[in-house]
Amino acid sequence: MNHRSFVPFAVLVALLGSVNAPRNCVGAEKPNIVLIFVDDQGYYDLGCYGATEVQTPRIDALAEQGVRLTDYYAAAPICSPSRAGLLTGCYPRRVGNHIWVHRADSNTGIHPDELTLAELLKSAGYATACVGKWHLGFHPPFLPLQQGFDHYYGLLHNLDPVEVVYFDDQGGVPLMRGDQVVKRPADPSELTRLYTDETIKFIRDHRDGPFFVYLAHTMLHNPLGVGPEFKGTSQWGDYGDAIQEMDFHVGRIVDELESLDIDDNTLIVYASDNGRGPGRMPDQKIQGRKLSTYEGGIRVPAIAWGPGVGITKSLVSGAVTRAMDWYPTLATFAGVPVPTDRVIDGRDLTPLLTGETTLVPPPGLKMSLNATVPLRRRFEPPGEWASMINRNEYFDAFFYHGSQGALAAVRWRNWKLVLNPSLTLYDLAKDPGETKPVRNGEILRKLRGMAVLFQEEMRRDARSAGVVVPKQANGRTRVTADQLDRLNAKTDVVYAQYDDRQLAMDIYRPSSSWGTLPAVVCIHGGGWYKGNRSSHRAMAQSLALRGYVTATISYRLSGEASFPAAIHDCKAAVRYLRAHAKEYGIDPDHIGAMGLSAGGHLTALLATSAGVQRLEGSGGNPQFSSAIQAAVPMGAQTDLLSERTRTVSASASRGEIWRQFLDGSLDQNESNYQLASPLFHLNDGDPPCWFVTGALDDPSTHADGFRKRMDELGIDTGLTVIAEAPHAFVGKQRWFDTMLNDADRFFQKHLKAKAGQKNGQ
C-alpha cells in the first residue's frame, strides 16, 4: 500500500490542530467581501505562480500577505458551468448548468430556486453587487438582479465571435447597468478599467458595510482588450499586457480599501474561472488547455487575502480545494449558516485559511460554522464499495467534468484517476504533467468506486437548470409540458369538510427542490359567485416552478353560502397546509397568499384578519393558525365601507353580486361589509402586502387608503400597475409574466429570505 494513501488518526489530529466548537464568524463584525473572478487565466500566469513574462506585484502581494492555493480547481473548464459552481456552491451538474455555455439564444440559465451566494449574503444584511461578465442566462428570471444582486454593471455575454453575431443587427453587445444600456458596442480595451471604476464606486457608496462585490472580469478571455497605457508593457503580447493591466486595477481596489480604512475588515478572493494552457518552462509540468480536464484546463490560481479578518499570512497550501468551497467558506466569515434545506458540494475552508489546520477538516469535527454542510450529501455505498470508501474521503474527492458536461476524472489527495478512454491512474505529487501512469490496484478501485457513487448521487439528486420557454407577447397564458414535467402535483386534496360538502385544493411543488419551501395559497376570482381552483392553476404552477409549494383552492361560492363562508374556506386552506407541512415539505412559518379580483379581496382579508373569530370558521385543524406572512392581492377591493362600495352595492345592474355575497347593500348590512373589509381589520401586526392591478382597471384597485395606512404602521407595501392591462390581466402572457415576476420578488423577500433568517442566516 502506498504510504500516502491513508493518514493515521494521530497524524490527522496533529495536522488539524485542536478541535474547537464551531465559530459563528471569524471576526467581531461581518467582513466586506470582494470576489475577483478572472476569465481564462492559466495556472502559471501570475508571478507568484511562476510566470516570468509578466510583472504582477499587486496580486503577488495578496498572495504574500495571504494564502496561495496550489491545488485549487475551477468548477469546470468552461465559463458558464464554472460560474454556476462558484455562485451556488455546487457541482455545475448538480444545478443543471454543466453542459457548454449559455449563448444569447439560450432559454436556460441558473434556476431561480437556487440560493446564490449573493442571495445568502444579502439575507444577512450585505449590500451586493455583480460587476462584469454574467453568462448564466439572459431571460429575466436568470439575471443578476433576480439572483440576489442589488446592483449590476457589465456584460451579460462574451465578446467572442460566436456570441457577438447575435447582436450584429443591434449595434453590438451592450454594456449594461441594471437593465439599461450604457454603451453599445462594448469596447474590450476599456472593460478592466470600467469594471474597476464601478467596483470602487460601489465600495465607496457602501463603505459602512457590509458589502459583497462579485467582480467577474471579461478579461482575459479572447478577444483580448488592453488599455493604451498598458500596450507593449509585458514580454507576452496582448495576453501579458492584459495581465499587467489586471494587476494594476487589482491594486487600485486594495488602495481604495486602505484609503477608506476598511482594509482590515475586508476579505479578497482572487481566482480564475478555468485554465488556459500548459506550462512554458521545464519546471512547469502541467499540460492541457481550456475545455480539457487535463490539469491545465481546470487547475487555476486562487488567492485569499484578509489579514484583518483572520486569513493567515504567507501560507502556500497544497490542500485540494475547489471553487464550490468558497460558498460555505465566505458564509462562515460572514457569520451566516447555510440554510439546512440546501444540499451543496462545497466544504468550509475557514480553518485552513486561518491557519488552524493544514488540511480541510472532516465535517464531523465541526471546526467552523458551516463545517457540516457536506454531510447533507447522499452517501449510500453498496457493499462493493462500503469497506473501501469512507464518507470523509468521498467528500474530499474532486470530480472533474469536461466542457460537454461528462464526468471525466476523479482526484483524491495526490491521486487522479482518468476515466476515459480507459482507467488511467496518475500520482500528481510526482507527475503533475500526467505523463506516467502508475499501477496501484487498491487506489484505482477506490477512485473508480467514488466515480460510481458520484454518478449515482447525481442521478438521484441533481437539480434542473432554469428554463424559460419563449412566448408570444400577446398570446394566452400557458404553462408548457416541459415546465409541468418539473413539477410534482397532488390534485383533488380535500382540505375542508362541512357535513357532506367537501372542498378541495391542488398542490404543486418543484420536483428538484430539497427541504422545506414557503407555501402560497392561490385564491381564484369570479366575483365570489363563479369559478373554481382551475381558474388560478397556471398561477400556482408557474409560481411553484420558482421554488414554492403552491395550492390553488376551490371555496364556497355566494350562491351556496354567503359571507363569511368564503373567508372561512381560505383560512381552512391555510390551516390545512400548516397541519400537513411535513407531508408536503412546507415551511409552516412562511405561508403567503395571492389572488385576483374576488380572490384579491379574500387575500387581503386573509392577511388582515388573523385571530378574528367570526372569520375563522369550522373548516378543520383548529389547533393551527390561519395567519399568513405575505400577501399579493390583485385587482382587489380593500375598503368595503367606501362611498364607491355604497354606490356599487346599491346599483340595480352592478350590485347584485355584492348583495348576494354580503346579504344586502352597504346601507342594508353595514356590519357585514365592515366585517368583510380588509381595511377595517388592518393593524400593526399584519403581514406585508403588495398590490397588483391593470392600468385599465378601476382606480380603487390601487388600494391607496390601505397602502397609506400600511405605511403609517410601518408595514412593507407597494403597487404594480401593469401598463395597458384590464381587470382580468392573468389570461395574457405578457401581463401574467409581469405579475409573476413582481409577486415572486415580493415573496422572495418576505417568505424565502425570512425563512433563511429563521434558519440562522
Automatic annotation (TrEMBL):
Name used for this protein in its record: Arylsulfatase
SUPFAM superfamilies named among the record's database cross-references: Alkaline phosphatase-like, alpha/beta-Hydrolases
Coiled-coil segments on the chain, per record: none
UniProt keyword annotation of Metal-binding present: yes
Pfam families the UniProt entry points to: BD-FAE, Sulfatase
GO terms assigned for molecular function: arylsulfatase activity; metal ion binding
Keyword field contains Calcium: yes
Family: Belongs to the 'GDXG' lipolytic enzyme family.
Domain BD-FAE-like: 505-698
Domain Sulfatase N-terminal: 31-336
Organism the protein comes from: Crateriforma conspicua
Alphabetized UniProt keyword annotations: Calcium, Hydrolase, Metal-binding
Source species, domain of life: Bacteria
InterPro entries linked to this entry: AB_hydrolase_fold (IPR029058), Alkaline_phosphatase_core_sf (IPR017850), BD-FAE-like_dom (IPR049492), Lipase_GDXG_HIS_AS (IPR002168), Sulfatase (IPR050738), Sulfatase_CS (IPR024607), Sulfatase_N (IPR000917)
E.C. no: 3.1.6.1
Class of the enzyme per the UniProt entry, highest EC level: hydrolase
Listed Gene3D superfamilies: 3.30.1120.10, Alkaline Phosphatase, subunit A, alpha/beta hydrolase
